[in-house]
Amino acid sequence: MIKQDQLVKIIGKKNIIDKLDVLDGYSGDMSLVKNVKPDCILKPNSAEEVKEIVKLARETGTPLLPVSSGWPHFRGDTVPSTSGVVVVDLSNMKKIIRVDRRNRVAMFEPGVTFKELTDAVAKEGLRLNMPLKPRETKSVVGSLLEREPVIMPKYQWDIADPLACIEIIFGTGDIFRTGSAAGSGTIEEQWAAGGAQKEAAGPSAASWYRLVQGSQGTMGIVTWASARCELLPKLEDPYFAVAETPARLLQAVHWLIRLRLVNECMILNRENIAAITGQNPDIPAWVLFFNVAAYDYFPEERMKGQLDDIKGVMERSDLRPVKIISGIKASEFLENTRKPSPDIHWKLRRKGNCEDIFFLTTFNKVEEMVEIVRRVGEEAGYPISDAGIYLQPLVQGSTCHCEFNLFYDPNNPQETARIKELTKMATYELLAKGAFFSRPYGENTRMIMNRDAASVWALKKVKAILDPDGIMNPGKLCF
Questions:
Q1: Is position 389 within any domain?
Q2: Which CATH number fits the domain that encloses residue 297?
Q3: In total, how many domains does the chain have?
Q4: Range of the domain at 56
């Protein structure tokens, strides 16, 4: 076990926290994962301090759990899985290292939140391809590493986008840079030579970032990341379209994205519209939201051409684009989706807590997946009409993030038990029908991972190389 005097030499006494009330805050989250109290919290201020912490942990066999986002946490990945864990809280590392408009890329440390980074890149005429209304305390690095779905599929060329390069300290204590950042020289020397740390693949033929994304801190600790950005539009024109089933909306989405006509594009059900807006609109069950944008060169002409094409797409799907539904303006909804959730996160507004079931699937299977969750929900006594549903096209519309937000009262033991059983049974049924759980969390992880023995074997082999002593967030995934 690490002794406190050893840690004081690395990060100073004020950055070591062992007060019981603070430890209680790190011992659990909003998920259904069992609470386990960590031994202490460390708050390093630099990559060098993180490196020394990892080396000391390896020498003493102390498990480390990296955290970068603030409360609330939702998925159980930041809850210790064993006793004796030391939490490495990276929220003090808040430097925005560089914003490069010419190459449309930003580099930042793990403590930087979405509001901080969006404000910084906006000054350079740039914007992030970000998730749907992240919480105010959410770390951008944390979101990128978790592969959270982004709301502009038009600008997503790979499932990892917009993540570009990272610097990571593996469980061995070695510092490693991925992608174009792995080139010779320091980062500053790369800048001087025209480098921008924008290419994710590499070094060599390997895509090392794929080993880190989705690993829940089991490979190492990321100390900075770079992300691709997009230009701020000159003109924007958002719309809604509504339907009683998702079929026609999905058909329209396919062509809107395939023809590269829209930026933001998503489908939400009535419950999620209500949760995001804070209203209870009397609208049809399903809502398609999309935003048309034009940039610096001939914006009016570009906008007119796109709207003409969109009109044809919507007519073929028998849909009518509108600017307002039940008092909710599309322009206000656009701004709402881009802003982080202040104070109470939008998923907690309905009943106080939310358990998510999410996976990847193809457009033609979405309705089948919705029907599975509806049936299992009825069997468990939870009507699907009470759940939020979020369908987010990804990677040029080639796949779809399908998410069920199960709102429930955490103070009701019967309802909590019902949600726990529902998530387990729904995951089992969805797996059987081909749902791809690319980001498994919590108690259902073992069920998901055990369906692919070859991947588990490969991951364990890589883990043995990058974290031979098993100190990085033990107990998560298949480790």
A1: yes
A2: 3.30.70.3450
A3: 4
A4: 4-89
Sheet containing strand 64-67, strands side by side: 16-17, 40-42, 86-89, 64-67
**How do residues 313-347 score in pLDDT, each as one tens digit?**
999 999 999 999 999 999 999 999 988 987 789 99
> Which tokens hold the place of 380?
């468990």
Poorest-pLDDT segment among 329-343, 358-372, 431-445: 329-343
| Paired residues of 341 in beta bridges | 135
pLDDT > 70: percent of the chain? 100
Q: Which residues of 217-247 are buried (b: 16+ CB within 10 A; e: fewer)?
A: bbbbbbbbbbbbbbeebeebbbbbbbbeebe
Tokens at 325, concatenated: 């539904």
Closest CA to 271 of 261, 262, 281: 281
CATH code of 43's domain = 3.30.43.10
157: tokens are: 């060329």
Please tell me the pTM assigned to this model. Answer: 0.96
Each as own residue / partner, the long-range contacts of residues 309-312 (CB below 8 Å, 24 or more positions apart, any chain) are 309/259, 309/261, 310/256, 310/261, 310/262
> How far, in Å, CA of 250 to CA of 317, rounded?
9
Residues 226 and 197: beta-carbon distance below 8 Å: yes
Report the CATH number at residue 216: 3.30.465.10
Q: Are 225 and 142 in contact (CB under 8 A)?
A: no
Measured distance CA(267)–CA(389) in Å, rounded? 8
33 shares a domain with 129: no
pLDDT in tens, 107-156: 999 999 999 999 999 999 999 999 999 999 999 999 999 999 999 999 99
Dihedral (CA of 147, 164, 115, 125) sign: negative
Closest to 473 in 3D by CA, of 75, 149, 19, 164: 75
Whether 396 and 420 map to the same domain: the answer is: yes
